[in-house]
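step 3/5: co-fold with 5-phosphoarabinonic acid
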Amino acid sequence: MSNRIGPEHGLSGDSWAGLCSRLGALTDQLRETQAAGSLRWRDLVRSPLSEEHVDQVSEVADQVRAYYAESAPGGRCKHMVVLGIGGSALGNIALQAALRPQTHNLTSCKFRPGPRLYVMDNVDPALVGDLMLQLERADPGLQHTMVNVISKSGETAETAAQFLIFRDWLRRHLGAERAGRHIVAITDSSQGTMRAIVDREGYLNLPVPDGVGGRFSVLSPVGLFSACMGELDIAHLLAGAADMDRQCSESDPHRNPAAQLAGMLIEFATNRGKPNHVMMPYSNSLYMLADWYRQLWAESLGKRIDLDGREVFAGATPIKALGTTDQHSQVQLYREGPNDKVIGFVEVERFAHDVTIPSGLGVEALSYLEGKTLGTLLNAEKRATEYALVESNRPNYTIRMPEISEYTVGQFLMLWQVATAYAGLLLHIDAYDQPAVETGKVATFGLMGRPGYEQWAEKVDKSLGG
Ligand code: PA5
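step 4/5: write tokens
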């Protein structure tokens, strides 16, 4: 606010009050849109859909576990490879990183709930080739390995190529019949290329619910299945999201954190020359949540035309940073570079483990650290950075999590999904399409020789030169 960072950069009480009256009207608009059935991603955390999905996902996970219990020496699935990209991958990565120890994949089976998780969200041949090689070494015969392909459309070139590779790989090691038992597909329940493949090959499968786009699908089977295989409490995740959804339905913007966040960020972006938003968790576990958020904010809000067809080039640029690591990389820019950013800190009050710094070295310059915990140091660094930014008139805010749990992560995910919906309304754009991404997809089809897309290859060559 202007009383902390000055009138040039901060919001005044009057401008905030004006914004709040606008936000109240948008809450009514969102309520109406949802009542008309057009916000299916919000229904994911409400009864009966949430219970249905928990049951479906748990049942498939139980079937998978039962299969490995019977067929694999030692009775466990030890390696789970997720194939997907964008909204079909980032939620899986974020949940795993936030809610499992960072060392999960390094931990032996005895101390690790669920399989190791590898989310292949790229077609870098070195990455894919190396994973296959390492898995063949760790699991010769692939009896402990499963593949979870996630694609709403089944048409995305990256996921499709990976699927062809991993299906063939499993068949070569396990034979055609057993290979199919090592694949679980998550796709549209009634249409699309992947649905046709699933129906033909008889894979275990789960739905990408109707009307839910990729970047709003983390709380559907898309994100829940790998979390459930990793023995995370998915009901608790959905309960946190549902509670946040209720809070973000409050008509009074002062009691509605999603409305406040969106109002503040869009005001800074559109009227205060601060279109960049840095999400900076002071927690390695939460860093991938910032990655998930980055897609949500960028793909939803970056739009050339508004709802009236006017060219607006809307959007605000999401940036991720990690505290304290990026204090030694980015904060110089954030404090003294262009004042064109809002910094959003995410702070954790209680960590799953804390580590005490021992005493006994006897060096006076370092004695202030002795006996303190790393959690205390981390949060002191965050507060010091917040202070430094305020002193430089840089707008910033803090989201404080009491702890990292399924419940609080569910809250965080829902908070940002609803904030994105508000931001879309404030910008008067369609937050749920991605026409620019689609152009890249079809141009790739053309360049890769897909019949029917030849004109795209010609267009690319004409534009870029042969
Ligand atoms: O958010 C989105 O809609 C996109 O990121 C998609 O999830 C991504 O392009 C993958 O699409 P699909 O699930 O159809 O393979």
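step 5/5: annotate
The chain has a mean pLDDT of 95.
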